[in-house]
Amino acid sequence: MANVNFQQPMSIAEALMKEYASGKLDFSKAELPEADLQGIDIKGSDLSYADLSKANLQGANLRGCDLSYADLSQANLQDADLRGAMLFATDLREANLQGVKLEKADCDRTTHFPQNFDPVKAGVKIKQDD
């Protein structure tokens, strides 16, 4: 049985950063609803199919991450860096995208953005069906 120190519990963000620092980049299908990941730096990670609904990702560095099919509905992405991220079929409904950097991020017509949000104006490249 693992040795657990209940006096100083490790936060989800700390655990994720520890794995990232050890070289892990595959966090696909991660279950992180309502997680406090404010300011986390996990650029280049695979978060496809992850549940990040209602997560606090304010100021996070998600540059170049694969967020395809991820649930980011109602997430706080204020001032986050998603430049170059893959957002194919990503659910961003009701997410806070104030100040988010989305230049050169890729999405398709199945990506759901918040109402009244213009992804093209934000610099997102929308892949058209061939």
UniProtKB/TrEMBL annotation:
Superkingdom classification of source: Bacteria
Protein's name according to its UniProt entry: Pentapeptide repeat protein
Native source species: Richelia sinica FACHB-800
